[in-house]
Design brief:
The protein is an alpha+beta fold. The strands form six sheets. A five-stranded mixed β-sheet has the order 1-3-2-4-5, sandwiched between helices. A four-stranded mixed β-sheet has the order 16-15-17-18, with helices on both faces. A three-stranded antiparallel β-sheet has the order 10-13-14. InterPro entries: 6-hairpin_glycosidase_sf, 6hp_glycosidase-like_sf, Ssp411, Ssp411-like_TRX, Thioredoxin-like_sf.
Amino acid sequence: MLALAWRRFTRKHGPVERARLSTCWGSGRSQHRWSSRCFAGRLRPPGDRSLPLPPALRLSPSVLWRMASGGGSSSPHKHTNRLAREKSPYLLQHAHNPVDWYPWGHEAFEKAKTEDKPIFLSVGYSTCHWCHVMERESFQDEDVGKILNQHFVCIKLDREERPDVDKVYMTFVQATCGGGGWPMSVWLTPDLRPFIGGTYFPPRDQGRRPGFITVLTRIIDQWQNNRPSLESGGEKILSALKKGTSITANGGESPPLAPDVANRCFQQLAHSYEDEYGGFREAPKFPSPVNLMFLMTFWWTNRSTSEGLEALQMATHTLRMMALGGIHDHVAQVSGERLFADVAKDVLQYVSRDLSDQSGGFYSAEDADSVPAWGGQRKQEGAFCVWTASEIRELLPAVVGGSSGTTTQADVFMHHYGVKEHGNVTPEQDPHGELQGHNVLIIRYSQELTAAHFGVSLEKVVELLTSARARLAEVRKARPRPHLDTKMLASWNGLTLSAFARVGAVLGDKALLERAERVARFLKEHLWDAERLMILRSCYRGDHMDVQHISPPIAGFLDDYAFVICGLLDLYEATLQTEWLVWAEELQLRQDSLFQDEQGGGYFCSDPKDDTILLQLKEDQDGAEPSANSVSASNLLRLSSFTGQDRTQTSLKLLAAFSKKLTQVPISLPEMVRALMAHHHTLTQIVICGQKDAADTAALLAAAHAIFLPFKVLIFVDGDPQSFLCQRLPALMSMSQQGGPATAYVCQDFRCSLPVTDPQELRQLLLDRTAAVHQTIN
């Protein structure tokens, strides 16, 4: 749900000249977005707006870019380029480089054509660690700036603003280098065709590895003396990519069989599963919600089998290890009871507190790098969240009553969280040596084992750890905060809307549901152009805490529509407010008109009419966030049940277009596999008839949300025959409250069970539905 950014592909060699240049120099790391550093933090109840915003949230973009670049001086800058007029925090981080940067756009394209120069395209995002490194090492370098300005037209791109551009050139880099990452460095002809690409480059040569200046010198030489070969080689690769990335359904083709695809996806995930710490594949691991959601869905459809139980164990163990590990901010963690619910609320509290704009929207990210509290102005990765043993001993000196000897609160805390005297970060995890002697807090023992180790009561340990976390949280407030990217994206706000709506519904938390409604209203007010019927990609926090847009605004992409539609459907099911369902249908119609491939099936990632985008791609991998086509396959099916307009064939044609990937490597599309499974099992319709705010309606709604039922839609009928749903679904006219109290029906294709009014009876009906699915499978 929150999470977010990691990618793929294969290698291909070019002709001798490009091989000598090495089209894939450099190496980069993709950084996880929206918090792979520390999650839950300094607690404030969700929805509490009485406290003032932290100081970092009151700074203007001009101040924020100085912080992001590691400087705090307000003195005049030696250099200022066009990026100073931009709103993107990432572009502003480069506004005072000696490089004459242009934003992506026709001004830069025309300059390249007029001066007949190649384009140097540098792509990244504001919380990317290696982007910071390259900016500091190379783009602040006067010599590098002179070379770039003399021989290239330089474009800096925020990949979060323009994922369409990023996808095209990342596909090229991955195809020619065997991998990719950010910062991404690509050299283009004046007509935007790539001919050489790479990722991070060190500023100077390092052994056999060429530095950035050497790379630039070789490219200049080849452009001047061997240009036809460079251009023809790049053109050949681009032509091959156009063919190789085509995803289309053959005429009359059906999707593969769901049970076969689901079983293969499970087997592939099980093969890559890591037993000890959970997760998939080797380190570094990143949260992959799509994998976990598939495993829980696979368990639901196979819960009586050993494979189903194994799928559930894989999912829950991975979640537990994430909750216990360094990815979760333990310095303000809620109680250890109801672990999964507590951690979910913990994450949403962090998002509400630290990534929330007063308009109701959510910011994009908080950086992994910050100025260390232990001294120095150079930012270091993880500095905000780590601790030395001596710090903890100084902060927690009290002797623990009831323990043997002179055990201190620090001893108990350090034992429980794996704190070592010389630090617990290995050199392999710390390539720059920035965290030597420091510790990432990781729960190593249960509270019961910690209590037994020190010979004190469990209650004492819980009290001790709670007070220790509060003490560290208070001290950490004085540390320099990481840079905050105050860009607000429609797609990520849509994902976050889903998170708040789903968790709020399951836990019956009104504050979370109110926050979900706030973000929905933010999306409609600030990122929906009602005149042009168009979602906008992004908006930005202004100097006076207002919401601002760039001119012209960036039109929304496929993921903006798909994720917002999904969020609105989730919000409707959580709040029963029909307005969100109506808007979701309107957005689906716009998505169809803008991005649908009517012949080949599925949706293009961006507007196919944009001639500056050289590849018309359909995202074919669920990663840190699900692909928009995977989400759309489910949206279409859900909307069919909600509105009565049959979109199932559009969904099936989408799935058919991805048949090859679903058949061969379903592990790459676990969210799409879930959509395929939903078609196979069909959706259960839960219809609740009653008064929206009545207690008996709420009780039935809570019963419906309390059971994990992955293939369902929840429909509310208030008795008004003129309501949106009754007009769309005439079958609802025959459903009513039985004898006065709120009444529930459980249906499939509106063939319904007998009505029930007792929440426990509804729960049993839903459990019976689950059992029926298993009998069908077995």
